Amino acid sequence: MVNDINLRACAFIVVVKDPMATMTRICELMTQKKIIIDTLHFQLLESGHAKLVIHCLLEKDKIGYIGRHFEEMNGVEEVNWMNARARTKQY
Predict the structure, then answer these.
(1) pLDDT computed for residue 4 by the predictor
(2) What predicted TM-score, i.e. pTM, was given to this entire model?
(3) Chain-wide mean pLDDT for the chain?
(4) Are residues 34 and 65 in contact, defined by beta-carbon separation less than 8 angstroms?
């Protein structure tokens, strides 16, 4: 069966404290919402904080929803997100 879903490539840039515990919560959220991560970049900063850059494909209306979940999550200091134009992916 083929389903056409309009997806947007997006990137979340997340600065976190307590990187391992917070990254676990982020991955649990992505798994719970059934969001497939294309790439995840992890950069440990001198302050003990970390910067995560998460690339994924999401429906347009879910991008802000997931961004707000990140903002409310314990251990998250800062969240920014960017998205691209819609593209169709076939399953």
Answers:
(1) 45
(2) 0.81
(3) 85
(4) no
- Spell out the residues 6+ positions from residue 28 whose beta carbon is closer than 8 angstroms to its own: none
Taking the C-alpha atoms of residue 19 and residue 58, their distance in angstroms, rounded to an integer, is 24
Sequence-distant (≥ 6) Cβ neighbours of residue 27 within 8 angstroms: none
Predicted local distance difference test score (pLDDT) of residue 91: 45
What stretch of H or E contains 86? Answer: strand 76-90
- The single-letter code of the amino acid at 76 is V
Q: How far apart, in whole angstroms, are the C-alpha atoms of residue 66 and residue 71?
A: 9
Pairing of strands 76-90, 37-44: unpaired
Could you report the per-residue pLDDT of 12-40, keeping only the tens digit for each? 999 999 999 999 999 999 999 988 899 99
SS (H, E, C) 12-68: EEEEECCHHHHHHHHHHHHHHCCCCEEEEEEEECCCCCEEEEEEEEECHHHHHHHHH
